[in-house]
Design goal:
- By secondary structure, the protein is of the alpha+beta class.
- The protein contains 6 helices and 5 strands; from the N terminus they run H-E-E-H-H-E-E-E-H-H-H.
- A 5-stranded antiparallel beta sheet has the order 2-1-5-4-3, with helices on both faces.
- The longest helix has 51 residues.
- The mean pLDDT is 78.
Length: 256
């Protein structure tokens, strides 16, 4: 050593790798927590999402500003029942979902609940509800995040209605096609048979009789076509006036 008064130098060192790693993980964890906090805060204050909390009886304990604006109430006046104003079907659905959240806290539940807003409109909301578990491991509250699906629900209803109408119309079309096929085929067979008889006959009186029958069959064919056109008109125009008909006379005219 350069200094003659120092006989020895003692160096004390320790490994701080784990400390640095722990500090880095803590900083990253705090960053993630901050980002997550801002994310949830943005959801709570988002004007497109409804955020609520309920106790296990279904009473509100929290509603975000968007929910309050659309459906009324305030966080200073909580303990209002979430079942209030619901129809019997929606009441049943909500109760079942709350029970499912309590029975299986780790699994979120999806449902659509209809509720009347401040302007009297019926709103359909798709909710994702999950259980909030306390330190004792028991479910304390139910949290819900939802968004308006009224337009989608109404579109689906209209699509189903149009599908039902189309199904009925297709069924009527098939029935009508059978009717046309049956009626036209009968007249066609009659005409073909009469023409063959006419061509095979050499007696003038028979030819005259066959000619009259051909004309009668053609007239019946024309009447059948007119009747079928009337059926089409009646189906297309619900306002067509109706008249009483005798089934006996209609059957008699048909077999003539």
């Amino acid at each position: 050593l350069a200094n003659p008064h120092i006989g020895a130098l003692v160096v004390n060192s320790r490994d701080i790798t784990e400390t640095i790693r722990a500090e880095r993980e803590l900083a990253e964890s705090q960053t993630r927590a901050l980002v997550l906090s801002k994310y949830y805060e943005s959801i709570v204050e988002n004007k497109s999402f409804y955020v609520i909390k309920m106790d296990l009886k279904g009473n509100f304990t929290f509603s975000n500003s968007h929910y309050i604006k659309v459906f009324g109430g305030s966080n200073e006046q909580m303990n209002l029942s979430s079942f209030e104003g619901l129809g019997s079907e929606d009441h049943k659905v909500l109760k079942e979902v709350i029970d499912q959240c309590v029975q299986d806290p780790k699994k979120s539940q999806i449902c659509i609940i209809r509720r009347t807003d401040n302007e009297g409109n019926r709103i359909s909301i798709k909710w994702e509800l999950c259980a909030l578990v306390g330190e004792n491991g028991e479910v304390q509250e139910i949290q819900g995040i939802g968004f308006d699906v009224t337009e989608q629900v109404e579109t689906l209803k209209e699509t189903k209605r149009l599908l039902e109408v189309t199904t009925v119309q297709n069924s009527k079309l098939r029935s009508f096609a059978h009717i046309i096929s049956h009626n036209i085929r009968n007249h066609s067979a009659n005409l073909s048979g009469l023409v063959e008889l006419l061509m095979d006959s050499s007696v003038e009186e028979e030819k005259g009789a066959y000619t009259q029958l051909i004309k009668a069959s053609a007239d019946n064919l024309e009447k059948t076509i007119l009747d079928l056109n009337k059926i089409i008109s009646i189906n297309q125009e619900s306002g067509v006036p109706k008249e009483t008909k005798s089934l006996r006379s209609e059957i008699y005219k048909t077999i003539q």
